[in-house]
Each structure stands twice: as C-alpha cells, then as structure tokens.
Amino acid sequence: MNYLAVLVSGSGTNLQAIIDACESGKLPETKISVVVSNRKAAYALERAKKHGIHTIYHPLLPYRKAGVSRQQYDADLARMLLSYPVDLVIMAGWMHILSMAFLRYYSGRVLNIHPALPGMFPGTHAIERAYAAFRAGQIEHTGVMVHRVPDEGVDVGPVVAQCVVPIYAQDSLEDLEARVHAAEHELYVKAIAQELGIHIVE
Fold first, then answer.
1. How far, in Å, CA of 20 to CA of 43, rounded?
2. b/e per residue 148-166 (b: at least 16 CB within 10 A)
3. Could you state, in order of their start, the residue ranges of all structural domains in the chain?
4. Which fold does the domain 2-196 belong to in CATH?
5. Catalytic residues
6. pLDDT at residue 119 tops 90
7. Which residue among 158, 183, 193, 197 is least crowded, i.e. fewest CB within 10 A of its CB?
8. What's the whole-number mean pLDDT along residues 117-125?
9. pLDDT tens-digit series, residues 55-108
10. Three-class SS string for 72-98?
11. What is the structure's pLDDT at 200?
12. Measured between alpha carbons, how far is 152 from 197 in angstroms, rounded to an integer?
C-alpha cells in the first residue's frame, strides 16, 4: 500500500480529485493517511472527514504570537506526520513555503502543483497573471506543472509532469480558471502515480 499525506489551505478540489482516484481504484493500492491544514475554515478538511480520513489543524498564528520561528512550525509539522505512514507529501493548495526544517524529513518525496508552466508566473495568482499576459499578447497558452520540492524556492524544483492549457480569445477569466483546474486534477493524479511507480487504471 502507498500512503499520501496531503497539505491543504483552501477548498481542496485537488484533494478531492486524489480522494476520488484512490477510492475508485484509478490509483490502485494508494491511500491518504492524513490531511493537514493551516486554516481551520478550509473546506478541504470537511472533504477529508466525509471520507473518513484523519485530519490535523496546524495553525501558524500561535507560533507568531509566541515569537517562535517558521522553522519550528515546520519541524513540528514534520514530527506530526511521523505518526502516519507517508510515502509522498502532496501540497495541494498549501499556502505556506516549507523550510528545510520540514523538507529534510521527506527529501525527494514532496510534490507541489502550480497552475502555470515551468518558469512562468511563480507565486500566487498565476492564472490571473497568465490571463492578463494573454490579453496583452505576451503568451498564447498557459499550463500546469507538478514538481518536486527540494528546497525553499517558490514553484521551482525538478518537474515531474506538465501539460499545456490553451487560452481562447473568447475566454473569460472564469473560463480559463475552470480549464486550468480541470487540468490540475488530471495531472496531479498522473504525477502521483508516476512518482509511486504505479499504473493508473483508466
């Protein structure tokens, strides 16, 4: 059995795609052992609970109030995960840059997804920035990538999988967002399978 720990901060649509792939057998012999959120109101936590997946709420604010470093926050997160079987750590909308205090525990086993192609629009609001660049005639398409997280760089690291997402002249921002998110859901499942060395069951 392969085990995933999924880190989330928001609604959890990528998490849901992974849950569905695990439960349907598309990702055979794969299970999510724990879902962690740094935001209590993240709907992703509800998604996990509906499927009987253990959840952890790990807020940063108490650390800030106590004057404790981000590195300590990350080290504590890593120690929490050590209680669970974890083959891969999946960042699925986790709005927090992981430091080496966490990454050293899971070297080569942390994946992140970014709604742009490698080297394009790192950081937040990537889809909005791609849409604006298309409208300005600077790009003809955008995409999605999944990469390993070796260090504290933002949306950099060895690329595991990527795909191009077209942008059409008639697209609204909402149209493009929907197309990118659909591509994310498919690509992340493929990338996880590839990293685990398993065959996706279509």
1. 16
2. bbeeeeebbbeebbbeebe
3. 2-196
4. Rossmann fold (3.40.50)
5. 114
6. yes
7. 197
8. 95
9. 999 999 999 999 999 999 999 999 999 999 999 999 999 999 999 999 999 999
10. HHHHHHHHHHCCCCCCEEEECCCCCCC
11. 82
12. 26
